[in-house]
Structures are given as C-alpha cells and as structure tokens.
Sequence to fold (161 residues):
Amino acid sequence: MAAAAGRAGLGLAGTGKVLGKRMEEMASLVGVRCLFTRSRIPDSVFQPRPEDHEKYGGNPEEPHKIHVVTRIKSVIGRPYWEKKIIRDLGLDKAHQPRLHKNIPSVNSRLKVVKHLIRIQPLKLPHGLPTEEEVSSTFLTARGELIIKKRLKPVEQKQIKS
Fold:
C-alpha cells in the first residue's frame, strides 16, 4: 500500500498523469545507459577504401588467401560479443599470430574486432613448403612463413687405392 502511495506521489500511478520534470530527465537517461551497441557503428567504416590498398601493399584484384591475425590490444572492458569473437578466433593470448582463411564469414567477424587486432597477408618468401619441410617451418611477426633448411648428410664414397 505504501509503494502505491509512493508511486502516486511521483505521478506514476495513473496512465493519464504526467511525470515530473526531474523524473522526465531521469527517464530519458535510462535509454543512454548502454555505451556499446552494434548499431552505433556506421556501415561506411567497413567499406574498403582505395588508399588502404596503396598503404598496405594489397591488390584488390588478387586478394591474398590467408590472413595472419594477431591480437594487439586487451579485451578487458570490451563488450561480451567482442570477447566471444576473440575467443572463437583463437586469439586468447596477445601477440600470438593465428592463420585464418580470407572468406566472407571470417572477414565479417574480423571487422567487428578490427580495433583490437592486426591483420596481415601470409607471405611465402620461399614458396609453399613440401611435406618434408612442413615440420621445419615457422611464422614470423611480419607474417612470413619461413622454411628452415636442414642439411642432409653427404654420402661418403670409398676411395680405392
């Protein structure tokens, strides 16, 4: 009963009553509470720009097949959906590169967290490794797949005297 009397004093009891000036201000602030919303990011942010291709050395006619994705910023204080995407992409640890295909489903997820990651094309300075060389390859921080050449023992021939 006391709660109903309190609501009546605030002008909330009946549907025809008007909120007070102070309550109107507070009610308008309720809609502003959430700082992170997906709808606030304009679509123009995600559109490719020609100057990006010149800056990063990409060719829009022949895009690279594999991305080297590295997380460079923390996810502390970021919204839950960004944390989930980072976890799903395998970027739990910072500065640990991961390889992902350059396909629309992956690219759409990368766009959502592009402010937390670095995306580079996979470079193959020594060409594609063979099956024997796969175990002796490593990925550099610049996105290059390096093949460590292993020396094979030379067969010694017998010298006839």
